[in-house]
Amino acid sequence: QVQLVESGGGLVQAGGPLRLSCAPSGSTRSINSMGWYRQAPGKQRDLVARITSAGSTDYADSMKGRFTISRDNAKNTVYLQMNSLTPEDTAVYYCNTRVFFVDYWGQGTQVTVSS
Known about the structure:
The protein is an all-beta fold. It is 0% helix and 57% strand.
């Protein structure tokens, strides 16, 4: 079992930055890839970015150049640095990992970008 706890969401003005953190607990030794997804009201949950334990990253096209995912392997903590935020980035952001073919999700953290 893996538990994921996100933090760092909140209200920010358009153009501003925000950093999210995700700290796992439980069977963390089995974790390889970790990622961030987001879900806006009335929309599906979409990939934002993900990172492997080796540091390989993958981003959704609309986030490239604005968002940066990073990881502290000693803490198994993953971060999402978001810059140049727009109101379209408003969503609940979820941390995710897959262990032995089982997806684990955090409770989500709300990010609201005001215009």
